[in-house]
């Protein structure tokens, strides 16, 4: 069996574990109105998704 050559220090393993669950917040811009929106979701400002009107706004 392969064995690790050296024991990892506490701070090293803590840093590695801290990094596990973290993800950068995903942000996309609407093509139509150029506002910040979540990716793969309908724009809340103009109601469009991939050039299709999904929700009518006003
Ligand atoms: Zn939009």
From TrEMBL:
GO molecular function per UniProt: structural constituent of ribosome
One GO term (biological process): translation
Gene Ontology CC: large ribosomal subunit
SUPFAM superfamilies: Zn-binding ribosomal proteins (SSF57829)
InterPro entries with a match to the protein in the record: Ribosomal_bL32, Ribosomal_bL32_bact, Ribosomal_zn-bd
Alphabetic keyword roster: Ribonucleoprotein, Ribosomal protein
Superkingdom field: Bacteria
Pfam families: Ribosomal_L32p
HAMAP family in UniProt: Ribosomal_bL32
Family the entry assigns: Belongs to the bacterial ribosomal protein bL32 family.
Protein name: Large ribosomal subunit protein bL32
């Amino acid at each position: 069996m392969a064995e690790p050559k050296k024991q990892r220090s506490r701070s090293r393993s803590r840093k590695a574990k801290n990094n596990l669950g973290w993800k950068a917040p995903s942000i996309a811009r609407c093509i139509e109105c150029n506002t910040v929106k979540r990716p793969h979701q309908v724009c809340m400002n103009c109601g469009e998704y991939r050039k299709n009107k999904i929700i009518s706004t006003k």
